[in-house]
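#struct-pred

JT: dropping the chains for the assembly here, can someone run the whole complex?
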Amino acid sequence: MSTRTAKALRTPGGLSVRYEPRAAVAVVLLAVLTVAAGVVLIGSGDFPIAPGDVVATLLGDGTMAQEFIVEDLRLPRVLVAVLVGASLGLGGAVFQSVSRNPLGSPDVIGFGQGAAVGALTVIVLFGGSPTAVAGGAVVGGVVTGALIYLLAWKRGLHGFRLVLIGIGAAAMLTAVIHYLITKADLIDATRAVLWMTGTLDGRDWAQFWPLLAVCAVLVPLVLGHGRPLRMLEMGDDAAYALGVKVERTRLVLMGSAVLLVSAATAAAGPITFVSLSAPQLARRLTRSPGPNLAASALMGAALLLVADWAATNAFGERELPVGVVTGVVGGVYLLWLLVTERKAGRI
Amino acid sequence: MRAAGLLAAVGVLLLICVASIMIGAKPVPLGDVWHGLFHNSGTGNDVLIQELRVPRTVLGVIVGVALGLSGAVMQALTRNPLAEPGLLGVNAGAAAAVVSAISFLGVTSLSGYVWFAFLGAAVVSVVVYVLGGSRSATPVRLALAGTAATAALYGYVNAVQLLDSAALDRLRFWTVGSLANADMATVRSVTPFIVVGVVLALLIARPLNAMEMGDDTARALGAHLNRTRAMGMVSVTLLCGAATAACGPIVFIGLMVPYLVRALTGPDMRWILPYAAVLSPVLLLGSDVLGRVVARPSELQVGIVTALVGGPVFIHLVRRKRMAQL
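RK: done, full complex below.
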């Protein structure tokens, strides 16, 4: 189907680029949706601002009060949400593509738990600052990623083995998390459970800049490996025959994805199911094969913004952490995915 | 040969029970154990043994039996070496139901929330079985369905804890899986359920043997497939629900023990079930004793020890050659 819809753009000099119109339109639409959701989210809260005023304020034409609210309070939160969502979507797309399984996404196979163990260790045992907690999350996520990769490695990487070993590791890590929570006093325990649910409350520029630095390096790196990744989906042997350096590509991609997911987790806690659902939704939207990296990243950002809006506005006075919304919606989506995948005979 | 092995296993279980009575924050010498058990005269050690160590040991034994048997029955029913109540979300279902009962309905006593644990365990085991593909379930599908259910349910448990910090304070100890708060009232209220579950499990040993060979062969051999499945599910629900209500979700016991037992006895369920029933409490109590020793003067909850011991066994299972072609 995709070969039929793909078009080539030729220049007089003899260069050509192949592109798929539907995928390109989907990417543009998702970008527009992300920006629109961001503007609405900035405008909503205890002090509502109309979307037009938000745009004006962002362009520098707002009142003092509006500038303070938009630029100091709400803009950083929205930007963090965009980057976290994009990192999770992109990381999830890479994992699902490498494991060749929609369920091989980081939140099913234990990275969330690994990052949570790192962060909780810092919270409970050292009473660390938010920066130290973020560092702990990154270390925990990366170590977990390396361990799962090594354990799943046995004359090549088998998708289901990666998933099952991840599930085993997740069970062990969950035990460690529970242990750390019982060790804590009630205040630290509440902080730990809140962190584990994943929230964007109180995110400011301090979380934004490190995350932006990580994304600025890794997102282009991953997007640049989109073509070899697409060939990897056809199997190691076929990809090798097509000239892909299989192991190196996979290591670079998995490493980047683990870092992206860990950095996102460090900034906002383990927000579940975004990395599972974003690539799947993006794939259905673009209807093109392959990992759909750019569309997945944008879909992740849009999803997280909408979920955050729902979490803060849909429950009346009570603001819930965004992780509760993504957890419940994503859990239902995961079950639906299991049913449809089974009917299609893919798992 | 296998009978002698079973006797030896019972001997090991008795030794572990004695060790469980002796070892703890305050060690009790062997002579005092005898005295405390049979000539209770109210000395400090006698009270300690009667009030704390004996209930804890007894609860460990019956919960161990329950978890091991439910794992063995589940693996036989699904013909799947990875089937395990903890992994398939049954314990999480019980946990979610108990959490709801504690937080929303104000249920505080064990005899009150044991029913919610059964309800949660029953609903989730059916849901996971159906999602996993019912008859055509493969190990991967079941494990994934279980993981999905567990993830969603624990998300819910976390959310409830977050909205109700009094519940968090009570639940964070319960959700770990611990024998530390055992008393004779707990033992008394779960024992009837576990006894029924054990009897049901032992009754279906023979038809389960037939079902190992596939549905058609089993039917030809005269096994009642649906009746066996139904009895198996009831048994698993009773055993898991009671065990989870008594001491919180404990994972991997039901995975490890039947796997190890199968290596000892071969595939005959009539031997696997008794062996699993004797060796699971050995593992559970052993983990509990280990948890009391490694983190002195406080202790490591048994659910944590079993997960840390069982995780590597699970990963080893997955890495085995045959499992690679799931």
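JT: nice. Chain A is about 75% helix and 0% strand. The domain at 2-8+22-343 of chain A is CATH 1.10.3470.10 (ABC transporter involved in vitamin B12 uptake, BtuC).
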